[in-house]
Design a protein that fits this description.
Helix content: over 70%
Number of domains: 1
Low-confidence stretches: none
Number of helices: 8
Largest sheet: none
Oligomer: single chain
Distance between the termini: 59 Å
Length: 180
């Protein structure tokens, strides 16, 4: 019985990394940085990965089993990847844990804010949450467009039947289309 559960766990972990890979790929869309003005920095990219991972986790949590377990697997994959990335960037072993914990807390705070904002009928709440987090409170001219994008992605994910490790985000328009 133990081996069978371990094999199931490995499949779940693999699926979590596959879902997380989908979130990372969507977060790398140049349109987010060029047309919307998301800061093309380490923090800006972390925020876009976080937004996309949160959207997947949000939808997986609400699905029947194994949805909640897959949501946890996506979260685990994200922070395993953050750990690896910090080490590859040369962060010392003794401080990696503290930095990952700070990233976890930042993600959790953002996810909580986004969850409350997307559930509220006032569309300005999501705009404000994104401006506060992605642009660190600066003007964030693209915050309203990013909020609309997040709502569109949320609706797009809601219409999907997730198979193990497969999900799709709606493709972003090319930069020239967004600027028109």
């Amino acid at each position: 019985m133990g081996l069978l559960n371990m094999l199931r766990g490995n499949r779940l972990e693999r699926a979590g990394f596959e879902f997380y890979g989908v979130a990372v790929a969507a977060a790398r869309a140049p349109w987010l940085y060029t047309a919307l003005g998301v800061p093309d920095t380490l923090d800006g990219r972390f925020d876009m990965v976080g937004v996309h991972a949160w959207l997947l986790i949000r939808h997986l949590r609400r699905r029947p089993a194994p949805g909640p377990a897959l949501a946890q697997a996506v979260f685990d994959a994200m922070f395993s990847d953050m750990d690896v990335n910090l080490r590859e960037m040369g962060v010392g072993d003794l401080s990696v844990g503290k930095k990952v914990k700070a990233m976890w807390e930042a993600f959790h705070g953002r996810a909580t804010a986004y969850e409350a904002a997307i559930a509220d009928p006032d569309p300005e709440l999501l705009v404000a949450a994104l401006r506060r987090n992605v642009w660190r409170g600066a003007a964030g001219e693209g915050a309203a467009a990013l909020a609309a994008y997040v709502r569109e992605q949320d609706a797009f994910l809601d219409r999907q039947e997730f198979a193990a490790g497969t999900a799709r985000f709606r493709p972003t328009p090319p930069p020239e289309t967004a600027a028109a």
